[in-house]
Amino acid sequence: MNIPFKKNDTILFIGDSITDCGRDLNVPETLGMGYVAMLAGRLGQDYPELNLKFVNRGTNGDRTQDLLARWDEDCIALQPDWVSILVGINNTWRRYDSDDPTNDAVFEAEYRSMLERVVRETEARLILCSPFILHTEPYVVAMREDLEPKMQIIKKLAADFDAVWVDFDAAFVAVEQRHIPSYWAGDGVHPTVAGHALLAETWIGVVVG
Predict the structure, then answer these.
(1) Catalytic pick from 74, 97, 190, 196?
(2) 10-207 domain in CATH 3.40.50.300?
(3) Which class for 180: exposed (0-12), middle (13-18), buried (19 or more C-beta within 10 A)?
(4) Domain spans, the chain
(5) Average pLDDT for 122-134
(6) Which of these is catalytic: 16, 17, 81, 169?
(7) Mean pLDDT within 86-92
């Protein structure tokens, strides 16, 4: 297996509540209780000789505009070797629960600005993860109309920036054949423990191989 990481690499995970997953904001070293902690444990166990460092900067409720606002402190200043981004579901959700939509052109511009800064101001490799929706309730299913174009924008940006593309949405679509959607994410958005395990397994499968 051709491991992409080098000894002492720092892998930064940044995004919204799905990445945050209960991390202690007052203790920067904490990883939360979700996929970040799960995959950090797995990779730490499998490759102890690499002494990898995992950093979680997910923040509950964040949209692209929020990540962009904290990009100096929570990304650039850390000078990571890898930046894994999972954002977009709140850009969609705010359209439906707060009548505060994010235009697709604005979404792309904000996301692109983050990536350009990583390329320009760090030596990090990029990992772009697709947001996702599981079809639990009709009102959640309706959100896919807004989310789908944003997923395609992120996939295009991954190609433009030679980033690793991790399709979490496709992974959840596949496992919905094995059990009902709410088993993987009770509200269709926030994963259960099994859902987070799937995220971790999918990320490792794509990034590590």
Answers:
(1) 190
(2) no
(3) exposed
(4) 10-207
(5) 98
(6) 17
(7) 98
